[in-house]
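User: Run a structure prediction on this.
Assistant: Running it now.
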Amino acid sequence: PHPYQHSIERKFNPLQKITYTIVMYLILPLMIISGWAVFFPDKIPTEILGVSGRLFYALTHTFLGYLLGLFMMVHIYLGTTGSTPLELYKGIITGWVPAHEEVEQTRSDSPT
């Protein structure tokens, strides 16, 4: 059985909440800021922490891009871990995933 049961009130488990908070409120804004800095290099300081400002923002932007790419790959993999490979993707498209109790009940109701 799953350690965390889905409900209408509790959509995400604690690890998902922490991860989404970090990605949406820390990594994504830093990615946008560093992208603008790389796009407008004349607006950034010439030196940051003893390193060229352009190099600092370029490396920061690249590193954050890798983190977001990893975030996406983990999502794609975890999307295939349902009872069937496409079951969780159906929830992404429809916006609704049946609660575990409903899935267990329909499985036990089906004739064998």
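The first helix runs from residue 14 to 39.
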